User: Fold this.
Amino acid sequence: MTPPDRSTAGGDPLELTVRPAEPADATALAAVHLRARRAAPMPDSPHPDATLAPFLATRIGADEVWVAEAGERVVGYARHTGTWLDDLYVEPTAARRGVGSVLLEVVKERLPDGFCLWVFESNAPARAFYARHGLVALERTDGSANEERSPDVRMAWPGRDPVAFLRGLVDEVDVELGDLLARRAALTRAIQPLKPDAARDPARERQVAERVARRAPELGTERLVPVVDAIITASLDAAR
Assistant:
């Protein structure tokens, strides 16, 4: 997503009208999207420019899409689902004139219980914009899961009950963690009959902790060594 204040343009706040998007807006929204993205420190999109307007046309109605207009000119838009802000783009010539702030407030009103978004790590102005508006950084990735293969940051606005919102995200992680632990235990059980002896390999277990630490650098290897030990111990006990 592009920061509303990326451009060196600026001035008094614009007189804006914000309304729900209509399918006929797709071409104008795509034009804003493309110009804003080129003006921001973001990687190039892997998709041809010509595919964007048809894609946005399919999302209007499926997602909530809000258009900001100054007079009859489209100067920005926001697109969100029930839990994610997927797009917030502002026309570069209208940057730093309150367009992004107004659109973000609309999304907050529509999603009072909170929402998440992804922003490229390289897009420091966007990250600063969202931080100024109360969003917090939750996690960073190496970009291997996005189409641009560029490191990104998951940010969130925790809504009117931040503890409840963040605990909800923890619950989602716990479900994923349960699935991963079940797979880990099943693989351990399958390996045991094939091993020549039942001895554990401390060097390999240390390597496992180091690999996990590369995905969770805030925890680090030393904190993860006892976690890996506990997982392996529990998996072996279950296998027996």
Notes: The chain has two domains: 17-160, 166-239. Confidence is low (pLDDT under 50) at residues 2-9.
